[in-house]
Input
Amino acid sequence: MLTSFKKFLASGNVFIWGCAAGVSISLLMVFGLLLLIMINGLTYFWISDIVELTLKDKQHVMGQLAGREIIPRSITPDRPEGKGRLRVKIGNRDIYGLDFKWVNDDQIVSEVYPADVVLLERREWGNMYARIKTLNRGEAVQAEGNEAGWIALAPLIDAASDLHRQITRIEKVEIGSINADIEQARLKIRAFEIGNPSAPDTRGRGHIDDLKAQVVAAESRYQEKTAELEALRTQFDEYSVVMVDANGREKQIPVGQIIRALRPNEMGLFHKSWIYLANVWSVLSNEPREANTEGGIFPAIFGTVMMVIIMSLIVVPFGVLAALYLREYARQGVMVRLVRIAVNNLAGVPSIVFGVFGLGFFIYAIGGTLDTLFFPERLPTPTFGTGGILWASLTLALLTVPVVIVSTEEGLAAVPREFREGSLALGATKLETMLKVVIPSALPGILTGLILAMARAAGEVAPLMLTGVVKLAPSLPVDGSWPFFHFDRKFMHLGFHIYDVGFQSPNVEAAKPMVYITTLVLITVVVLLNCTAIVLRNHLRKKYAGSVL
Amino acid sequence: MGGIAVILSIVCIFIFLVKEVIPVFFPPHGTQVGHVAGAPPSAAFPQSSLIGMDEYQEIIYQLTAGSDRQIRFFNVQSGAPIILDLPPELATVHVTAIARAVGVGNRFAFGTDDGRIVPVTIDFTAGYEAGVRLIVPAVTLGIPIQLTPAKEPIIRLAYQPTERGTFTAALTDHGRLWYAALPSDDTPIALTGHGSESVTAVIFDSRGETLSIGTAAGSLYHYEVREGSPPSLVETASVVPGASVTALSYLIGDRSLAIGSSAGDVSVWMPVRQAQESSTTRFRLIHRFDAHPSSVTAISPSLRDKGFITGDTQGNLFVHYSTSSQTLLKLQGNQQAIRTLTFSPKADGAVALTDRGELLTYTIHNPHPEVTFAALFKPVWYEGYEKPEHVWQSSSGADDFEAKFGLIPLIFGTLKGTLYAMLVAVPLALLGAIYTSMFMHPNIRAKIKPTIEIMAALPTVILGFLAGLWLAPMLERMFPAIVAMIVAVPASVVIATVLWQYLPAATVRRLRPGMESFVLVPVIICAVWACLGLNQQIESFLFGADYKSWFATHWGLRYDQRNALVVGFAMGFAIVPIIFSISEEALSNVPRHLIAGSLALGATRWQTLVKLVLISASPGIFSASMIGFGRAIGETMIVLMATGNTPIMDWSLFNGFRTLSANIAVEIPEAPHGGTLYRILFLAAMLLFVFTFLINTVAEVVRQRLRTKYSQY
Output
């Protein structure tokens, strides 16, 4: 027995298996993580049934089941083994103050799924789970009872959504453009005064008066629009529903506050799937609500994409040139070794250091100078002297340039010598060979580098926090007002959204689903980009693998 | 060209960081810039003159005792006097002593030859005339108070108006010390605690809670002042043995007392708690500064920080900073004794009055007084601490806050986080790399490597979020299970190996090499599952009832939810792929014919690995670990989200910490451009840069060497 054990040890098999365990654990961690995020992210869109629990103390609890666990010992030290409890999302934050409630199993008398419970998705205060008591127009009761109310409610919600869309359009687009006009005119006046500080000549005076008239006109247009808004708002609040919760508490809600009313317990699988897809779409395309914890993440997606695109435009030329130099022009020697070390170092510099550099150099040094040179009329409000999408992109370009260099080099190295020699032998100059033969052949390598850089940039957060990301940007970096691209604007970013919603929001528990969804979107983008890069690279390797000899 | 751009950008980053940091270490400089002829102070009375300045630093004023009943105002720039109608009451007053109240504002009291005290306030109002700022002073007199019952002349005076009342103490020319607090105790009380020693300095703190008296014998007497009861002598300390106390001044915040002596010594004393949990304090010498060559005559504290200036009888003016125990600047005088001086409200200038009645103005350029190398990296004795300590606390709500810029706790936190991450990552990554490179079928390897690469591409913000919001609460609930896993997972692997031996050889052979890890996946899942399921039982078995109380009672450890263990796992996860890829590359590059030779000579796979492959690839593995180390040091989001970000120094697994990188992320949005904090955060970034630069360079050089070595074969 002992000898066989010794033999077993000597063979080293157990150690080899130990090594194998290293791989297994790593794989488990990766897939476990992906699975965890997928499960948590994807289940959010599913509308689960509403349960109504009757407790021993005659209280009722209504909501969606959110989890089940064995009661931890820290809560009840001397409880009998194996008692469980339910976690119910009770919603109605304006009535209860809490979103979730724990219910011990032994408290529950009955558990039913009544078909008539209504789920109201609201613009404020989160979901509501209740039954309709009356539907009012002003003070007058229009429909009474749950069924009548439910039938009458649906068209009203549609009308209210239309109104809401109208209101947002007026607020964002029309009033926004009036404000922009006023601001433009004000800045022109200011610029003129700065230009001629002493006494504007008569022509200048006329110009200024002109501008001032413009401001007055714009202000009167503004008044009109606010009046229009006011009218729409009263219309908006015309109808209201009185809801009654499981314990008979009533709450009046204006119909304008309701985004959607559902009866999940009545729905079939098909209907629920449809709602599921609609939910996915609404998260991807809508703006956030309620301090980012509800609504959509469209501005964050847009900001991320925009930032990555600007960064790509900067990083590709820079990285490709560096790689060309390293591989094609430089003589292999101390210099090239130094550059390689520098490239690897640049890749190893902590991202926060890039952020600090971006803040000090791009924003304060360059941005500050730009402001004093070109936008003196806006000071002391900084234009480029504060964080913005351009500076963030530049910072990330610096951060990702090593990625592009390394992979372009690999691409160049894979181009067979014969291609070059053939081209040169046919009389092409070195530059022509470069542009027409080498670079096109190395394109997959360059592309790989670009995609990897994009993936890296999409996931970086620390440098962005210092160079222009915000939790809620009032407007996108691209919009309909001239000059359409606003590189000085702050923007939202998926990664920062995760940090902000998960760690800075007042109600982390309620925000968690949103964080998981954002994470899911971000991880999907990053993993897809990386997979593309890997496929491209393998393709590149295969393409030239045969032709070398 | 592009390559040079890369080097350039590295150099550029470094130079820029240095450029932003270096002003912090510039020595301050200052000069005497002008003088204005004021009135000579009276030689008969020691406390007979005061000077001050408005907050825009445009007007200086002088108050003088004696028959001269004027308050003089001068424009700093031109020296031109400003004419002002003084209150008529002043005409009847014969001033023998003047005292300034500690703190912001220009509040004074005149002591008179008949034992009265007259409160005086000077207000400055800024008006604009034709676009030019014009500062207009105004003088208001308060109601006189009779302080010495025998109407003896007052020669020294301390005066402090507070919200609770006005506190005054006065020394008469007969050597008696009187105290009164208005309006509650308006009958003056004689203070006799100092015995027969002659009083040379009297001062209240700004809250009027302590009265400090310095004597010619070099002693300091502390009275606790309360309304409704006479002051009680709480402490006596011999602060300048062999000399007399010549100047006293509380620094902003009322905790530190700066003391000047006739021998020229300057020191700062603070009340220090005797022992932890005890409320009794003792006055102790905390900071000692460069001594003046002659007797110190006046001290003026800064209104912004813990700095102060001192003057002596030879006209020297020194600038000190309390926290860092540094004398920052010495301005040589011209042998004219400085009678009194004042630090400008923005602490960038000073005015001194000489014995001849000249008002000397100074500019002092000292934007970062609090930073010295020692203040950043050595323990410093801060106010309210029992001993010198490393502390990082850059800001607080209070104005009189002492900024604590000790970087050591942050460096400690950085190393702590990195160390725990390496403990998780290195074994896992190395085992994986060895297996993948040596024992795995190439086809499987081609699938595994991209998976690990994707692991490297996962944004750290995601890892941080999962660590903070999922792993940390999970770990808190399941800690006993995690402890058990450390044993259970390896054990399950060993058991699986043993069982594998008994499988029919035919089945075994059908599997390609490299399938071991897939076989192990369900085994490990089962082990983990069992541990989690048995959490409660394990907890009862290992820790009695509750693991938290077990750790608290046995080891005195407190469990924070977001702790080093969580960071270790999350950051370990982040650096596993880096270490894995680089060491895998190093291992695979070991020439095949060497391995083939070893196997042909009869060595087992394991022997070949340990005796040949690992040894020849060890530089590569070393460099992989270094690069992983460098990555972990600079990682920001994970530590930001998964630790409590408390800058404490404790190796415990269950505490949080704060790293340099997280500190930058947390504090730089609040740091004003060009300020001290801003520059110190740049210094932190520079430290990170230098550190990772060194590590990466070493790692890269090792790798390049290794590559050349292998290419010889």
Q: What stands out?
A: The mean pLDDT of chain B is 84.
